[in-house]
Structure formats: C-alpha cells, structure tokens
Write a structure and sequence with these properties.
Elements lengths: L29 H6 L14 H7 L22 H7 L43 H4 L1 H12 L17 E2 L10 H12 L1 H8 L15 H14 L4 E2 L2 H7 L9 H17 L4 H4 L1 H6 L1 E9 L5 E8 L2 E3 L5 E2 H8 L3 E3 L5 E3 L4 E3 L1 E9 L3 E6 L2 E4 L4 E4 L4 E4 L1 E3 L21 E11 L7 E8 L4 E6 L2 E5 L10 H9 L34 H5 L3 E4 L2 E8 L6 H4 L7 H43 L11 E5 H9 L20 E4 L18 E5 H10 L2 E4 L9 H27 L9 E4 H7 L19 H4 L16 E4 L1 H10 L14 H27 L1 H6 L12 E6 H12 L8 E3 L17 H4 L3 E5 H10 L1 E3 L3 E5 L2 E5 L4 H9 L4 E7 L9 H9 L15 E2 L2 E2 L2 H7 L4 E6 L5 H12 L6 E5 L2 E2 L7 H4 L6 E6 L57 E2 L6 E2 L19
Helix pairs in contact: 5-17, 8-9, 8-17, 17-19, 20-23
Catalytic activity: Thiol-dependent hydrolysis of ester, thioester, amide, peptide and isopeptide bonds formed by the C-terminal Gly of ubiquitin (a 76-residue protein attached to proteins as an intracellular targeting signal)
Keywords: Hydrolase, Protease, Thiol protease, Ubl conjugation pathway
Enzyme class: hydrolase
Length: 1156
C-alpha cells in the first residue's frame, strides 16, 4: 500500500492581526508622493508650481511626512496620566477587545531611526543621546578639549612601590636593567651603601653625571618620589647603554656590579670598600684528589652568583647537588698528579665554603646549541622553594682546620625572581617578582606597571562560582596598564603554561606548597634568614644623600605643580561643560516643528549631527580650545543637501531636516556656529527639478511610445516600407535604452553611429542586409514625429552601384594576392622552411646575407593571410651604425637572438626583385667562423647591447670537472675562433652525423646546462642568485657566479655597474655544503658559521674595566692571541679563548679561574 500523501500546510494569514491598525501612509512610498504629479498634473516643465518644488524636497502636505514628537523634550506634568484617562475604550458589546481591527484616519505613525530616516520633520536621531548621559558626555567633552594627560593619575599610592621607565619617554630595550634595579633597591644594606658614596675631591664637579649619582637619584625617587613611575633615562645615558638593543640581563648585572665595586673601592669608609663582597660574595673551592696518593689540590675562588644548569621538572636543590657532584678523571682524562709525577685516576669536585647574606642563583636559561651554532632558550621548568636550607651544601672545614659554622646560619628565604618572557634567546621581555621588605608583600614589576601579588601559595581548585568571584577582584596596581601588565603570580603548579606552569612527573613536588615552578625564571635571589624574625621589620629605609634628595624634591614639586594646574584647567573645563550641555540640550529639545505653518530653516542631517557632536569630538585639524563669547565662529557645511547651484537638491531630499528658525538663531548666537549656506524650505533648485522632471517624464512616455510602435511596426513581405538601423531599433525599444543620456534627447536613427547601417558612403543603400531592418510607414511616421530631422531610404531603393563594383574588385584583389603569395612562397621555399628554425650546417661554405627577423615573421604571416598588408621592404639599416659598420657580431649567438636571421644569398637576390632591399650584409660560414662584410664596430655594439630596460641572459652551469673561470681563461677563449652556436633565430645544427640530437644533450656538452633569466639593469647580484635558486633549486650560499672570469662576490652590485650586456652569458658553479663558502681558500677544516651576537656592552661604560679607563677595541670572539699570550680554556667546552675574554666565544660560559 503506497504511503499516504502528507496534508498541505495552511497558507499564512494575509490580513491584519487582531488589534492592528491599518497604516494607509505605508501603501504609497514618500518618493512616489514627491513626484506623483509628473505626467499627471504637469506634462510640461513650464507648468511646475512652487507647491511642486516643495514636494520634491518633502516639504509639502502631499508628502504625508508626520511631525514626530521630540523624544527629548521635557514632558509636561501629569502627561502620562491624562493620556491614560483620555484613551477611549475600543471594546464593543458582544465582542472581545482583541478581535477588533481598528481602521483610523488619524493614525499617529511610529517613530524610529529607520522609519524616519527620510522624514524631514523628525529630529530625534541626530546624536542627542550623547548628551543625555551626563557622565559619558563629560568624558567625551574632556577628551575633545585635550587637557593633556591627568598628572594625578601618575601620583603614587601610599606605600606602593614605584615602576621604572615612563611610557612617554620610551627607553627602548632596557627592561633588563629595570628588573635588576628593582632587585637592588629592595636590598636595604646595598641601597644604604649606594647612598653613602661620596665623590672624590677632584671629581666633585662631574659627580652629577656619574652612574653612581644617577643610581642614588633613581633609588631616592623610588623611595621618596610622589609619582608612581620614575624614568631612569639619565642613568641609562650615563652608562651609555644602547636603548635600541636588548642585552643579556645577567651580563649587565655582573658588569654593573663590577663597576659599582670599583666605585666602592674608592670610598674612605672601610665598610663601603667591601660592601659588594660582604653582601653578595661567597667562596668556593675547586678540588682535585689523586686516587693513588690522596694528594689534595685546591683552588679557592669567589663568586657573586651560583650557576645552575636546568633539567625538566627538577628541584633547585637537585640541580645544585648535580653541579657539586664528584667527577671521576680516568681513562684518557687522567689527572697529572704533581706528587706522583704521572697520570693518575682522580676525583674532581667543587665545594662551597662560605655563602653571602644575599645569594643569587643564575639559572642557565640560555644555552648554546652546537648544532645550530646559536643560543637558544631552554623551556625546562625548575621548582624552587620559598625557604632554602643551604647547610647541606656548605663544607666549612677548610685546609687550615677552622671549625664549621653553627647550623642554621645558612637558611635562606626567597626574595626575588627575574623572568624572561618570550621564546627566543635574542629578544623578549624581562620582568621581576620581588618581595618588598617594607610592605612585607610580593610585587610584579613589569617596567612601569607594578602589580601586587596576593599570595605565593598555590591556590586550591575552586568551583565555577568561586572562580567568577575571584576574577571580579582586580589586583591592585600602580594605575598603569600594559599589554603584558595583567596580574601574573609566580608560576606554580596552579599557573597556566604561558606563565611557566610545569607538569611534574613527581607528584610530591606539586603537593609540596613550599615549591614554586617556572619556565621563564633565569635568576633567583635568596636572603639569609637571621635568628630573629623581626630583624627585617626593624630595618628602616636609609636616607638618601642631600644631592639626590634635592633632585627628587624638585621632581615632586614639579609634579604637585602640574597637578594643581591640571586641577584648575579641569575646574574651568567643568564649568564650560555644564554651560555647553545646558545650551545644547535646551536647543535640541525645542527645535522640532509641529505643523507646516511654522517658520523653519533647512539643514542637512549630517550638519545637525556634526553640530550635536562638535563639542564631544576632537577636531582632526586642530586642538579644541575653550572659546569665550564673541571669539571666532564655527561653520558647518550644508553641502549634503545642496546642488551645484547652491540650492536645495531634490536628489538629496533624504538628507534634509527642518528645524525652527528660532533654534537656528540660537545656534548662531549662543554657540557661534553657522550652517552654510543658509537655506529655507522654499529654496528648492528649479533647474535640478526640471532635469529630474524631464527624465521622469521620459521614463513614463518612452514605454508608451515603444508599445505604440510595436503595434504598428509589423510589415508583410513585399509591402512598402522604410529601412532603419537594426542596432538602433533594438536599443531604442529597451525600457532603459543604453543610448539614452539623462537631460538629453535620444540619438536619431541616422546618427553617425548608426547611419552606415542603412546608407553607404555614396548615399545609396548599403549592401550589408544584416545591419538594417524594414519598418511600416505608420511606425516611420511615429518615429518621424520624435525625430523630425531624420530621413531614411524606402524599401524600393536599389543597392548602391558603386559599392557593388568595389565588392567585385575586392574579390579580384584577394584572388590576386593569394596567387602572389603562393608564387613568393615557391620562389623562397628554402627561406620559408628553414628561417627562424635553426640549421647552420646547411649554410656551410654557402654565400649568405643577414636580414631582420621581424621581416621573416611578417612575411610568413602575410603568406597565411594574403588579404592582410604585405611587408613593404627588407631594411637592414638597423644593423648598421653611424660609422657604416655592424652593430652586432654574428659570431656571438646572443647578438643574433630575436633580432636577426641568416638566409642564402640567392634568396636575398630574389627578395631584391620582389621588395625594396638594402643595404646588403654579406656573410659566409667557413668552418666554425662566420666571415662578414662590413666589419663590426665594437663601441657601437657595446652601447647598443648596454641600452636595455629588460633583457635575457644565459646562465651556464659548470660541470664538476670544469675549471673555475678566470680573466685569463676568458681572454684566451675570446681570442679563439668562435664556434657557431645554434640559436632560435638562425639556422642551427639539429643533426650531427645524420642523426637528430636533443637540445638538452647538446646543452650538456656545451659546458653543462643553460638557462635563460630575465634581468634589468638595476638587478643586483643577490637578486640574480635568488632567481637562480628558484630556477635550479640551488641555495644562494652554494652558488659561485662568474662573469668574464671574475667571481661576483658583492651581492649589492647591480648588473649595470658590472657592465653586463644584453643576451650575455654567466658561469655558475654549485658548491657542496661542506666546502668553505666564505672564500678563505684554505683546505683545512673550518668551523661552522655562528650567528653574530652583536656588540653586547662594547662601547658602553660597562664595557671598560673601570670608569676611568679609556675604551679599548674588544678582541674578536673565538680568536686566540698570538704567540706569547696565554689563552683561557673554557671549563665547559675546552675552547681556547683570548686571555682577557669575559666569556667563552663558543658557548658563552663565563670564564673563571679553573685549575688545569
């Protein structure tokens, strides 16, 4: 049984819903009402009345534009109550109120931004809402006034740390310095030592320019400044740091600390002399113990920081223990014992003897990758504790038998973490997380953005509701914002991956709340915990020196003065805002019309929107200022409502708005603003109205005329009629003819564009029957009324006799040209078959001639189409210079490409009979050399081949057994007879020994493969090598390019400067990757090229050994001094460095005194 057909759904209701009013104004569009009188009331432009002009702009009663109530007008008291009480009941006896359809003649149209978009009587959506919200209006008004940044926002919160690097004066890539300055500032003994530094008597005058004084000012501003951000620009300038280059933060720390230590050494106070050593310096011992005689060799050294290698998800203690573990020296790595006087097995290890009060751990976050010869950033996470017990790592038993220190003195608490944000070792951003000893809180320092970190403890997992509550609490900052300045806690097991979250395999680490993890930490700062927990609280801030205090007090005074001045300007602006808002709101609340009879002014909608927002938007051309009464005027253009005649344009009626004349006068008088031009509703442009009227009347009359024409145009075969252009008639019958131009009459059928479709040049009937069409006499009379000047031929007219005769002659001419082409092809068959193909062997010992290749191409095209124009002559003068010599050399294949061809002499003699030829360029192939007359003019040839905008050159790839080209070999080859090479435009040898040979095989035999590349005179060698890489897939670093025996080593040199000629040839050798491509010529094995590391701190004050030492030229990295100079062997990679090298040139390990 077939399935039942589903029932069709009932059609949707088409009528009005219950209670919906019938809106009659919607039945006819306003555009139709504005021009509904065209063709009905008015059929001639002379009959257009003022009422019609008003209607075109929407100002007439016939437009039915409602007068929308002003939504922003102050409502009269009890208006809502009276409206409710006076509303009649719509219910009827026996009917439900919802079933009644109300048809009202006095409907009130709904007002909306879309509905009233073209209503000139609605003034409700012109930007008034911007003024209604006082808070938003005030903010926009103040922003438009541009009162400069509020300095009070820069004020420092009570007890809040100060950020560094003001955003208004960008210091560039110096965030690494800011991070360490924040760390050193929190070290109270170190800060006190900086404050106590005094200048020497001989440098009293220059002390203010020294780094130590600028550091005093920086610390004083961070301590007593009243601004939330301090700009250490003078400290950076005193150190001569390059603000455009980011440097290694750890290297900066070491060099700057060394500089400060040298300054402290100059002080008279003994405590200052040893401040760096007392605060940051520890002692370690490198020990080697002979396994045979137990002889112990020790080398004691000092350290300012302990370097720790990284392993993924490892504890700090484990990595520290790994660095101190015993190394066995055995096998090929035996130790030369001085006691045994022979190589012996031994143990080597490092011991920590003394630890400083402030302990720095340098995490080797940036490692050297020997495979790429570049530094890279390690992504290993490290777990470090808040409380660190170092007693387990300290061996206080010294060689002289001193006692070990008591337990508990080497317990340390975390005081700071320095972070590097970013994936690369060569760029990124440095931040610091530091414990503020005064506030007893942790803070995140991101340059000028300082954020308080609520807790270092890992947060327990919370529900969604608790998360949303926690997220709503914004972290307290110093008022600055930055893209990366959101709150970042120390990266713990609850942190995100981006902030250094680690996923430890050992769950016990994650469960230990004492540990913190990070993938970005590169330095950890710990401070020794004293016996009394209140010692830190008892420490008070040291007092800055008077010089630094004066600088900071001046900054504070300037800041307070700026705040007072801004407050005064803000008060004045507030008063101006209140006055302006009151005036603007009072105007737009009373500017609406209520009927047609009110006196009105016309403004464009855009002009009114510009006026309502002009006090809230900053001008693009100039800064907005407070304008007092009578000072200057502001003009707003009404061009969005006017035409080229300066009057109301009916085409822009949708942009027009009518406001009360009184409101316009108030705008001019109180707001000093004029709408130009000043327009009234009766100033509609009569010229524009007439143009639109004519076009609309045409759109009404034209379809009617076409319909009438179609009724009378049919014509039977043989009936009398008239001829008309078929193309014109097809276009004219369209509803919108393409020929029609607004405000202009249509082109007549005998317009020059269509006249030849009916009449020939002799005035007779044209022979082309496809272009003309017959019409009836009635349709002819209809068109004659529209185009009185038009005349045409009747169907009784005969074809033009002259045109018929010309057609007959043309047929004979084509037949004759075809016969002539066949005859020439037969006479010049050899030239036709072989020219532009290439076959030089057939021309050996045969007299030849040189002809333009363009003539051969044009002649062959004429053979295919004899009716086309035949070549006029064979002009070879283009190959002759002003000296009567040749400008090309036939023995150079590149000279003959594209431009010239060689033919037999007997073909030339045939051409002389058929065409105008000359002058003769005689040639003959003798063996492998062309003999020719006249001779070659080398100067003119070079000038001709050098004058090109774009050309091709040949790149010849040398084989492995080919010698490298040299100027000598090139000169020798140039002096030898040149073999005739096959080209695209000459007769080339495509057969060898009677057998066909492929072009690829021939090219390989000719010293390797060849490719053609397009170049310009401005193409550089580097760009040419890139083209070769694309064409041959040979890396540019593996290319050695030769031109005329010289290697092209300068990649920036242009081919014009190198003298490369059109269709020239270059040689290319592909080098293997293991060959020295740097051109050293040495057969010895060369080290891999390493990335340029930049100048580091060379050229800065930190690049000198002391502040007073002159700048020295730094030694080249990776180069050991000559004989007589002892190098330094790297303890990590054993590379021999220069004696004064600070770090290893290969792996960048910091060099120290390491025993042999």
């Amino acid at each position: 049984m077939p399935p039942k057909r589903p029932r069709r759904t009932s059609p949707a209701a088409q009528g009005l819903s219950a209670g919906e009013k019938l809106k009659r104004a919607k039945l006819s569009g306003n555009e139709h009402l504005a021009w509904s009188w065209v063709g009905t009331e008015v059929t001639s432009a002379a009959d257009i009345a003022p009422e019609h002009l008003l209607a075109t702009c929407g100002f007439s009663r016939r437009n039915n534009h409602p007068f929308c109530p002003n939504k922003y007008a102050a409502a009269p008291p009890n208006a809502a109550a009276s409206t409710t009480e006076g509303q009649p009941s719509a219910s009827a006896s026996g009917e439900l109120e919802d079933d009644i359809i109300v048809v009202s003649d006095e409907e009130s149209s709904a007002c909306g931004s879309k509905i009233c978009k073209s209503n000139p009587n609605c003034l409700n959506y012109l930007g008034q809402e911007k003024w209604e919200d006082e808070g938003k209006a005030r903010d926009a008004f103040m922003n438009a006034l541009d009162l400069e940044p509020d300095p009070t926002l820069e004020s420092r919160a009570e007890g809040f740390p100060v950020g560094l690097k003001a955003p208004s004066q960008n210091l560039g890539a110096t965030c690494y310095a800011n991070a360490f300055l924040q760390v050193w500032y929190q070290d109270l003994p170190f800060r006190a030592g900086v404050y106590n530094c005094e200048p020497s008597p001989d440098k009293e005058t220059k002390f203010s320019e020294s780094p130590i004084f600028q550091l005093q000012v920086t610390f004083a501003a961070m301590q007593a400044g009243k601004q939330s951000v301090f700009n250490p620009v003078k400290l950076v300038e005193s150190l001569r740091l390059r603000t455009t280059e980011q440097q290694d933060a750890q290297e900066f720390s070491k060099l700057f600390m060394a500089h400060l230590d040298s300054e402290f050494q100059k002080q008279a106070d003994p405590k200052l002399k040893s401040l760096v050593a007392d605060q940051f310096q520890g002692k370690q011992v490198y020990t080697t113990v002979c396994s045979n005689c137990n002889t112990r060799s020790e080398c004691e050294s000092e350290f300012l920081e302990l370097e720790v290698t990284l392993a993924n998800n490892a504890k700090l203690e484990d990595r520290l223990r790994a660095s101190l573990e015993v190394e066995k020296l055995e096998g090929d790595n035996k130790y030369l014992c001085s006691q045994c006087d022979s190589l012996q097995e031994a143990k080597r290890f490092t011991e920590l003897r003394e630890l400083p009060p402030v302990l720095h751990f340098s995490l080797l976050r940036f490692v050297y990758d020997l495979s790429t010869m570049e530094r890279k950033k390690s992504k290993h996470a490290i777990w470090f504790p808040e409380m660190l017990d170092m007693n387990q790592f300290v061996n206080a038993q010294t060689s002289d038998g001193k006692k070990r220190k008591r337990a508990g003195t080497n317990k340390y608490q975390l005081r700071g973490v320095l972070l590097h944000r970013g994936p690369s070792a060569y760029h990124g951003h440095y931040e610091a997380q530091i414990f503020d000893t005064k506030n007893r809180s942790w803070y995140q320092f991101n340059d000028e953005v300082v954020t308080k970190i609520n807790s270092l403890r890992p947060q327990p997992k919370t529900t969604g509701t608790e998360k949303s509550k926690g997220a709503s609490k914004a972290a307290k900052t110093n008022g600055k914002t930055k893209a990366s300045g959101s709150q970042k806690s120390l990266s713990r097991n609850s942190s995100k991956e981006e902030n250094g979250r680690a996923d430890p395999k050992d769950a016990s680490i994650a469960d230990d709340l004492n540990y913190i993890s990070s993938r970005d930490a590169y330095m950890l700062i710990y401070a020794r915990v004293s016996g009394s927990p209140t010692d830190l609280e008892d420490l008070s801030d040291p007092q800055p020196p008077p010089r630094a205090t004066c600088v900071v007090e001046e900054l504070n005074t300037n800041h307070e003065k700026a705040c007072e001045e801004y407050s005064a300007r803000e008060t004045e602006a507030e008063e101006h805002f209140n006055q302006t808002r009151s005036m603007v709101m009072d105007i737009y609340r009373t500017w609406s019309l209520s009927n047609e009879d009110e006196d009105a002014v016309v403004c464009s909608k855009q002009a009114l929107e510009a006026w309502s927002s002009r006090h809230l938007v900053k001008p693009a051309d100039k800064k907005m200022t407070l304008v007092s009464e009578g000072e200057g005027r502001y003009s707003i253009s009404n061009e969005d409502a006017t035409c080229s005649h300066g009057k109301l344009d009916p085409r822009k009626a949708s942009n027009m708005k009518r406001i009360q004349r009184a409101a316009s006068n108030r705008i001019a008088a109180e707001d000093h603003c004029d709408f130009k031009p000043y327009l009234t509703p009766g100033e509609a442009c009569s010229e524009c109205v007439q143009e639109i009227f004519d076009e609309r009347l045409y759109q009404i009359d034209h379809p009617r005329l076409v319909s009438l024409f179609d009724q009378v145009s049919p014509l039977d075969e043989g009936d009398f009629g008239y001829w008309i252009s078929k193309a014109w008639l097809k276009d004219w019958r369209l509803a919108k003819p393409k020929m029609h131009t607004p405000s202009e009459p249509d082109s007549p059928p005998d317009d020059p564009e269509y006249a030849h479709h009916v009449m020939c040049e002799h005035g007779g009937l044209t022979a082309n029957v496809i272009s003309r069409k017959r019409i009836s006499p009635a349709s002819y009379e209809l068109l004659k009324e529209l185009f009185p000047e038009w005349s045409t031929l009747s169907t009784d007219s005969k074809l033009c006799a002259a045109c018929e005769a010309l057609i007959a002659v043309s047929r004979e001419d084509r037949r004759g040209a075809k016969i002539q082409a066949e005859e020439e092809k037969a006479k010049l068959k050899h030239m036709h078959d072989n020219a532009l193909v290439g076959n030089n062997n057939l021309l050996e010992n045969v007299p030849c001639a040189l002809v333009p290749a363009q003539f051969i191409r044009a002649w062959r095209q004429w053979l295919f189409h004899p009716a086309n124009e035949r070549p006029e002559s064979v002009n070879t003068s283009q190959f002759i210079c002003e000296h009567g010599l040749l400008v090309l050399d036939p023995n150079f294949p590149g000279d003959l490409d594209v431009n010239a061809a060689i033919i037999r002499r007997n073909d030339w003699e045939t051409l002389e009979v058929l065409y105008s030829c000359g002058p003769l360029i005689a040639m003959e192939n003798i063996g492998n050399v062309w003999l020719y007359e006249p001779a070659v003019c080398e100067d003119c040839r070079r000038e001709r081949k050098s004058s090109y905008d774009k050309t091709e050159i040949s790149i010849r790839l040398l084989r492995a057994d080919d010698a490298n080209p040299t100027p000598e070999t090139y000169a020798k080859l140039s002096s030898l007879p040149r073999e005739v090479q096959p080209t695209l435009v000459t007769y080339g040898s495509r057969k060898v020994g009677g057998m066909r040979q492929s072009k690829r095989i021939r090219q390989v035999r000719e010293m390797g493969r060849r490719r053609k590349l397009t170049i310009t005179p401005e193409t550089t060698v580097k760009e040419l090598k890139i083209q070769i890489q694309t064409e041959w897939e040979i890396p540019t670093i593996a290319q050695r390019l030769y031109y005329r025996g010289h290697e092209l080593a300068d990649g920036s040199a242009t081919l014009r400067a190198l003298g490369v000629l059109s269709h020239d040839t270059m040689d290319l050798r592909e080098e293997s990757e293991d060959i020295d491509l740097l051109g050293s010529g040495s057969d010895a094995e060369q080290p891999a090229a390493r990335r340029a590391e930049g100048r580091a701190f060379g050229g800065t004050l930190l690049g000198y050994s002391s502040a007073s030492s002159p700048p020295q030229t730094p030694p080249s990295q990776g180069v050991v001094d000559g004989p007589g100079t002892a190098g330094v062997s790297c303890p990590a990679c054993t590379y021999d460095n220069a004696a004064d090298a600070f770090s290893c040139a290969m792996c960048e390990t910091v060099l120290g005194s390491v025993p042999d």
